[in-house]
Design goal:
7-stranded parallel sheet, ETF_a/b_N, 17 strands, DHS-like_NAD/FAD-binding_dom, globular, Electron transfer flavoprotein subunit alpha/FixB family protein, binds flavin-adenine dinucleotide, alpha/beta, 2 domains, electron transport, Rossmann fold, about 325 residues, 5-stranded parallel sheet
Length: about 325
Amino acid sequence: MSVLVYVEQVDGKFKKSVFEAVSYAKAIADIQGSNLTAISIGNVGESELKALGKYGASKVLNVANDQLKNFVNQAYASVIAEAAKKEHAEVVVLSNSFSGKGLGPRVAVKLTAGLVDGAVELPKIEGGKFSVKKNAFSGKAFGITELTSPIKVIALNPNAFGVKEAAVEATIETFAPELKSTDLTAIVKEIVRATDKISLPDAELVVSAGRGLKGPENWGMIEELAGLLGAATACSKPVSDADWRPHSEHVGQTGIAISPNLYIAIGISGAIQHLAGVSSSKVIVVINKDPEAPFFKVADYGIVGDAFEVVPQLIEALKAHKG
Ligand SMILES: Cc1cc2nc3c(=O)[nH]c(=O)nc-3n(C[C@H](O)[C@H](O)[C@H](O)COP(=O)(O)OP(=O)(O)OC[C@H]3O[C@@H](n4cnc5c(N)ncnc54)[C@H](O)[C@@H]3O)c2cc1C
């Protein structure tokens, strides 16, 4: 018996959410008294794979196949399921990222396993029962799901558990499962990234702005503030609908759901559909000129003021602090 964790790579590197998923899987392995194996797909260097030992993976299955260099949902799901069978894994953990959201259900079907996606806590394993707390209704509620299948698949929400070190020596093993032709009907040859900015779902700090900014020409100060903080930028739905910002920045019920350590909302009213995607942020700072704006009700810190006065002052203060 073991726990298997899928470690998603981007350009041969692991993101923070991977170390978090490994830490989470290691904690489950410790509860069960079993070992943790990681499965890496794509061309990842040995030192990067070995580094997974720092978070508790004692074995790393390495699938270095050129056809799988870039993410292919169907094929990756087959490889993860084969790895789970090989390792007799009782629990399979992955990150509830863009690709994890597609992989989780596929892996679960292949293993006839129960799935919890959007997990926010370690499972409770008591009296033969295995239940997991998860986000429900776009983050407006939590649900407790009991998994009754012998194999369980858990997709962990980024930033829900944190990265925890549990250093062990990781051994690397080559794994080359046979792929069906139906798994490779589409191969991603190359991914050309539109931007090299910090990716929103992984960002620990997010600076977000809404219609209060009046127009796209005013985003310079938002980008400058985000740049100084090392934060990603986000926006409300009307802003991306009006093409002031790209749709990839739209957060909320119909956009991306995020849970960064810090979310700064500037000129955003705080409509329930917006809050659905950001309310699990650890600290929320709201800047709005209307003291009655609903966002203040969920804010940890609020500044009532005009964004065009407050943001430049914040930028100056940060520059002075950094200098
Ligand atoms: C089915 C459905 C799904 C939706 N999904 C989403 C979603 O995923 N994400 C989302 O964001 N919205 C979503 N919406 C839209 C949502 O209901 C709100 O309309 C939207 O969030 C409002 O965006 P906003 O706060 O930027 O704009 P507004 O509501 O226009 O608010 C602008 C805010 O800026 C403040 N302001 C104005 N000028 C300044 C200034 N100079 N300085 C400081 N503050 C200023 C105002 O006081 C106001 O609070 C959805 C709606 C529906 C019906």
